[in-house]
């Protein structure tokens, strides 16, 4: 009964927000780039640049779950922070529901429509604030009257499956990891966003709690018409959650497409290596040799041409001199990969001539 | 439908944070005791003119009378002035010189420290390197220098002490601010589009006041001693006025004749600073929600 009233109350608020219509992607990202300066030496001069995110472009359709995968340090989390403008991007454009961020839509306006759930459920809650204060903080600061905030907080707690009466006055350190992450989700939903960025939001939880949170995220998405950008290094979780996925390597997108296409027929050697490293419960599918060796190269001086060539079994001379573009080869599955072997006439011996 | 949902939602009021802190503090017997003692000292200082005699006149015939002498229940000092009157009156100046410079330094230094810590980058460097310049001078020398420039008297003593305390408060504040600022919950708050000022006030401050408060309390006793040192050097209050630090200094020579009497001003400074420390420790744990 309660669930139903919430649904009816929250839905209309979302519908009139829609600007671009159903065909317009909720978020279009074009050429997002961030290079961090490394300061060193006597006067703090810049001695190098970490290529954290390098020309990342993608789009997220309304109601879709975009999964982002990659090894540690590939720029997944930096991308999330750049989207939220928690770190100012060096270059790149964001179009949120047809409105260019920074022009038609202000950064703070965008932040209200796009919220983020962080990995560390403990560090992302203020230890001095009760659960109720944490969740109600943003609406209160944006001018919602106190009585309404309290009602809203209780609704949100119910929505994420926490008994409001029991939890509103507790402090974060009195909750379990799963409960804290529910609070974080409630906090992110407090401004009624349309897009939720889940940055490794379930990675720190144990498996049974992780499953509960994933189910919660699934039902919230249906109930509130949400769109997710789901960042994880867990290939099984990504496969379970996502409609479309994007594989990142050293700050660049190497492959993207629908989950079935990428998991079923990975094209990029890195994606193939990544997917064959996925643990399986079937002993017949055991992998006997490491699919990929070594660590990713230093992002301060990324390899020329294709960034994966230093670990790629198929690397040839042309890979060092030419940067492969992210080329779409299957329009239907929106499947694209950045590899010279897939690029006809690129000069690679395995490419079509 | 809206009204119905509102009625159905159970609403429990959360007390305001300050209220909750006070509720916890009330249960702390040590802090409440220290507050009572400090309150009594403050009350005596305020009521000094009505409950004691003139502190600056004495009789040469009644020098260094021991504690318990009829008419002078706390004895007399080296020139025959009533100790009770001098301690009561001295509390006025000593309490002011113990708290006011620290309080003002806390406002200025705390503000600068939060600014430097929260903003980071070039602003941080500018503020912190300026503070390092002040650090280069020993505290007393810096105070003497300031007094030499702006003249002597209570006002300049207070200003000098304030300037002495600012750099260390800035440094402590900047350190804790930088640590808290990099925590994810600040990032989460920024992601909601709330202004930095509100984030600092609501999210950052409650997490940094604890250590700063404890540090400031330790400065209060130092401030009383430094003020005494300045008046000893002739830069603070001129001699006829009563002030604990100055009394401690002048009674030093009589310590072999009347040891208990000579220790009285020191006792007052000791008790006062212990009270400040206990109260600030109590406040710190009252703010710390995890200890309850």
Descriptive account of the structure:
The complex is a heterodimer of chains A (353) and B (292). Chain A contains twelve helices and twelve strands. Chain A has 353 residues and is an alpha/beta fold. Chain A has two domains: 2-16 and 24-242, P-loop containing nucleotide triphosphate hydrolases (Rossmann fold), CATH 3.40.50; 248-342, no CATH class. Chain A has an eight-stranded mixed β-sheet with strand order 6-7-8-3-9-10-12-11, with helices on both faces. Chain A is globular. Chain B has one domain: MetI-like fold (Orthogonal Bundle), CATH 1.10.3720.10. Chain B has eleven helices and no strands. In chain B, α10 runs antiparallel to α11 (259-287). The interface between A and B is large, with 46 and 33 residues.
Largest interface pair: A-B, 46 and 33 residues
Q: Helicity level of chain B, as a percent range?
A: over 70%
Beta-strand content of chain A: 15-25%
Strand count of chain A: 12
How are helices and strands ordered from N to C of chain B? HHHHHHHHHHH
**Which CATH architecture of chain B?**
Orthogonal Bundle
CATH level 1 name of the largest domain in chain A? Alpha Beta
Query: Quick one: CATH class of chain B?
Result: Mainly Alpha
In the CATH hierarchy, what is the superfamily of the largest domain in chain A?
A: P-loop containing nucleotide triphosphate hydrolases
Per CATH, what is the topology of chain B? MetI-like fold
CATH level 4 superfamily of chain B? MetI-like
What average pLDDT do the residues of chain B reach? 82
Total number of helices of chain A: 12
Instruction: Determine the N-to-C terminus distance of chain A.
Output: 64 Å
Structural class of chain B: mainly alpha
Structural category of chain A is alpha/beta
Order of helices and strands of chain A: HEEEHEEHEHHHHEHEHEEHHHEE
Rg over C-alpha atoms of chain B, rounded to the nearest angstrom: 24 Å
Q: Using the 3D structure, state the CATH architecture of the largest domain in chain A.
A: 3-Layer(aba) Sandwich
Return the average pLDDT of chain A rounded to an integer: 86
Largest sheet of chain B: none
């Amino acid at each position: 009964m309660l669930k139903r009233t919430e649904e009816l109350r929250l839905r209309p608020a979302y519908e009139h927000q829609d600007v671009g219509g159903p065909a317009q992607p909720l978020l279009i990202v074009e050429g997002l780039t961030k290079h961090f300066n490394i300061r060193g030496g006597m006067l703090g001069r810049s001695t190098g640049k970490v290529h954290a995110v390098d020309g990342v472009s993608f789009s997220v359709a309304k109601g879709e779950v975009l999964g982002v995968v990659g090894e540690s340090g590939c720029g997944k989390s930096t991308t999330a922070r750049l989207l939220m403008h928690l770190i100012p991007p060096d270059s790149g454009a964001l179009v949120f529901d047809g409105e260019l961020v920074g022009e038609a839509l202000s950064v703070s306006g965008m932040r209200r429509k796009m919220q983020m759930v962080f990995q560390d459920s403990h560090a992302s809650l203020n230890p001095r604030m009760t659960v109720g204060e944490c969740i109600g903080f943003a609406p209160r600061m944006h001018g919602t009257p106190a009585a309404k905030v309290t009602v809203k907080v209780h609704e949100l707690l119910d929505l994420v499956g926490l008994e409001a009466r029991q939890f509103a006055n507790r402090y974060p350190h009195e909750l379990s990891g799963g409960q804290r992450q529910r609070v974080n989700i409630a906090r992110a939903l407090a401004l009624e966003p349309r897009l939720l960025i889940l940055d490794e939001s379930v990675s720190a939880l144990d498996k049974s709690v992780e499953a509960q949170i994933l189910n919660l995220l699934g039902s919230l998405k249906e109930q509130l018409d949400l769109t997710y950008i789901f960042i994880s290094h867990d290939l099984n979780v990504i496969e379970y959650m996502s409609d479309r996925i994007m594989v990142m390597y050293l700050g660049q997108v190497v492959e993207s497409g629908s989950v079935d296409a990428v998991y079923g027929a990975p094209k990029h050697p890195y994606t193939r290596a990544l997917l064959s490293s996925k643990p399986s419960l079937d002993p017949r599918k055991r992998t006997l040799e490491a699919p990929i060796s070594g660590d990713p190269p230093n992002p301060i001086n990324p390899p020329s041409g294709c960034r994966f060539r230093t670990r790629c079994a198929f690397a040839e001379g042309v890979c060092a001199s030419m940067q492969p573009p992210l080329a779409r080869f299957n329009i239907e599955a929106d499947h694209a990969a950045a590899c010279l072997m897939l690029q006809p006439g690129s000069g690679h011996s395995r490419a079509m001539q | 439908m809206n009204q119905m949902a509102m009625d159905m939602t159970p609403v429990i009021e959360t007390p305001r944070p300050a209220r909750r802190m006070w509720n916890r503090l009330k249960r702390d017997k040590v802090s409440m005791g220290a507050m009572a003692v400090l309150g009594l000292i403050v009350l005596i200082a305020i009521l000094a003119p009505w409950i004691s005699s003139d502190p600056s006149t004495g009789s040469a015939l009644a020098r260094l009378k021991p504690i318990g002498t009829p008419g002078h229940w706390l004895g007399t000092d080296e020139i025959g002035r009533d100790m009770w009157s001098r301690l009561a009156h001295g509390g006025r100046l000593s309490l002011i010189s113990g708290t006011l410079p620290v309080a003002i330094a806390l406002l200025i230094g705390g503000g600068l420290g939060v600014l430097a810590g929260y903003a980071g980058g070039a602003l941080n460097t500018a503020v912190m390197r300026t503070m390092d310049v002040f650090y280069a001078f020993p505290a007393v020398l810096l105070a003497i220098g300031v007094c030499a420039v702006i003249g002597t008297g209570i006002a300049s003593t207070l200003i000098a002490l304030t300037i002495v305390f600012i750099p260390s408060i800035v440094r402590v504040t900047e350190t804790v601010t930088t640590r808290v600022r990099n925590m994810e919950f600040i990032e989460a708050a920024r992601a909601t589009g709330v202004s930095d000022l509100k984030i600092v006030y609501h999210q950052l401050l409650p997490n940094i006041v604890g250590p700063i408060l404890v540090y400031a309390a330790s400065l209060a006793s130092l401030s009383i001693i430094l003020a005494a040192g300045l008046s000893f050097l002739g830069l603070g209050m001129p001699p006829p006025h009563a002030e604990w630090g100055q009394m401690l200094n002048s009674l030093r020579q009589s310590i072999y004749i009347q040891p208990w009497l000579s220790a009285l001003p020191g006792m007052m400074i000791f008790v006062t600073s212990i009270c400040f420390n206990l109260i600030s420790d109590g406040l710190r744990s009252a703010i710390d929600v995890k200890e309850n």
